[in-house]
Amino acid sequence: MIQPSHVTAGGRAICDDLNLAMKRVTEVLVSLRTDPNGWEGEWRRVHMQCFHVVTVLGTCANDHPNHVDSFVNFFDLDLPIHRSYILQLVGEEAEAFMCLLQMAIDLTPVNYGTRGLYIELLMDMATHCMVLPRSLNLDGEVDKSDSALFFGGFGAVWKARWQGRTVALKTPHTALDLSDPHRVIRRLCREVLLWRQLRHPGLLEFLGILRPEITGLRYMAIVSPWMEHGTIIEFVREHPDVDRISLLRQVSVVLSYLHTHEPPVVHRDVRCVNILINENHSPVLCDFGLSWIESGFSALRPDTLQHGNTRWLAPELLFPADGQEPAPSLASDMYSFGMVVLELFTECPPFAKRATDGAVVMDIHYNRHPQRPEGDEVKGDGFSDHLWAFIEKCWERDPLRRPSASEFANHLDTEFDEPQVQIVEVPIQDDSLNSPDDSWNLTGQVTKSSDFPVVHGVHHDIYSGLMVGIGKVALRLFRASGNNDLMQKVVQNEVMTWRTLRHANILPFYGVINIESHTFSVSPWMENQDAMTYLKAQPHINRLKLLTEVASGLEYLHLLDIVHGDLRGGNILISELGTACLQNIGTVVASGGTDFAMTAQSIRWMPPDILATEEDDHPFTGFSTCSDVWGFGMTILEIHTGATPFSDVKLDATVMRKICQGKLPTRPTTDVIGNDIWNICVSCWGFTPQARPTMKSVLQRLGYISSPSLMATTA
Prior knowledge:
Layout: H1 9-34, H2 40-60, H3 65-86, H4 91-107, H5 113-129, E1 142-144, E2 150-151, E3 155-162, E4 165-172, H6 181-197, E5 208-210, H7 212-215, E6 221-225, H8 232-238, H9 244-259, E7 265-266, E8 275-277, E9 283-285, E10 292-293, H10 315-318, H11 330-346, H12 357-365, H13 385-394, H14 405-415, E11 446-448, E12 455-456, E13 460-467, E14 471-478, H15 484-498, E15 511-515, E16 518-524, H16 531-537, H17 543-559, E17 562-563, E18 572-574, E19 580-582, E20 589-590, H18 608-611, H19 625-641, H20 652-660, H21 675-684, H22 695-704
Antiparallel strand pairs: 1-3, 2-3, 3-4, 4-6, 5-6, 7-10, 8-9, 11-13, 12-13, 13-14, 14-16, 15-16, 17-20, 18-19
Keywords: Kinase, Transferase
GO molecular function: ATP binding; protein serine/threonine kinase activity; protein tyrosine kinase activity
Domain Protein kinase: 143-414, 440-705
């Protein structure tokens, strides 16, 4: 405890005050150890002592460093003993102790060993209790954009004005809470607390959190400075002469900071889209939603890698050893960083010549790396033989053979004179998307009635709206990406194709509207949602009728030489009358084309001719009507079982290998799928495209099935 003899008279009262408060905290922890069920009343009488300690230390830390030493020693001595009991705290008691922990973290030297233990315990408490220290809360009015401007896999970003500055508000997708709201909150708490502990000019600054009652959003929002220059890819596209080597060196330095932090931090999502450019035209790394601490002490573990980004993932994450979970590491970050270097010098995603993520996974499985870019494929200056050799070291199959981030930074310093960041004038961008055809422009006839997306899809978000003379409608917005040209192409293709379609089993297209520089596609509102949601609510629905309607809509598309490209239960909507309607027509392409294949994610529904590469025995042939037939077979299985294809296989990468090896899903019992239906599935799964029937033939075979036992199944 603090010794009054070593302080001034003015500080003696502070010593006594802190000693008493910390003594009471210790007494509560002791009571937890001796009587875990009898501590509630005692703690409720003293939990404000925790806040009192924080307040006093915050005002006297500079003038009375011995108080700080005693406070840190208090944690060093008692924390290992009381850890398991601390994790029993909940509610206000947990929040109070978390404030003490945060103070201990702030007052402990960065490389001091126990600081890592404090961070791990703080994050474990937040994950367990789903609360955050109130010291992270910000106050003040917020004026935010009416809709989110950017979307990622888990979060949406809003632009706002707060305390006289422009900031970004990051909040989870509202649709994510439909399946597991507690998981969303735990994930948000983890990201907030990890980000809060990191301090480096190469990291996006964490300002604090704003509560929902201030922002009007469903969840608390993480506040950070607004980066007007966007992502590093957007920056170099706009300024092709910028020094890319300098940018890469700065990114490698901040990665080195994370990897040598106490405890080490694995980012887990190192991509150009997560590297922003600040007002000084320097890169800052952002998005710690997937990050975790490399330690065996913390109870925190990374989320499933199904949420990862395949083209940047290291082989050991896609193909872990049998019986083991994927284990992100500093080395897997460096594998991703090698992809970032390639991405920055080509301005394309890794494996750009591969149309699907499935083909990429097979390349990684067979240890095939992206090809070296040549000629016009290389953008900017600085791409050399030595740099390419170092990139290939990052892609070593053995993680132990990959260089560290500091070694990469040193390599750049050795090969190049240390460059200065080039200051360039960045003009104001007009990021509006023009409507592809004004004759379909419904602006003024439709209003957006929901502030938040009601459905969050792989490529788009759905808002609700009201249309004059129609009533409730769905407004479909493609999620913004780093490539606005690609997004505009997707929107234009959607409108040009979708508006020509007229069929009872195709989702009708009403038109488009422009709201705040965003283009929304307008279609009927489907209260029954998608097929899988509908079947869960109505398990006795006639599945044969549903599949026949899907087959009819797909046959219609094929007659027009249109490939759907992403057929599955989630892309089948159910009308008010129970009719199946195919959606996501904007992602289809002309027969044999692959324009939108780059964004395809539904690999469990894909055939071997989509997942293969040219080196395989069965070549990649691109999306076709035949690949749609394969997907229809998987959709039959999905609709009858209520589960995704290959539901007994956890990793998508394993599913890809099975498909390319000619292995089919396990057959359910005959009371789930009868012989006639199963035979249709198997025929749709012909290994080569030529071995599969046409949709016209499939539709005829469905019409022959009349047994009542096959017309409905119970989920």
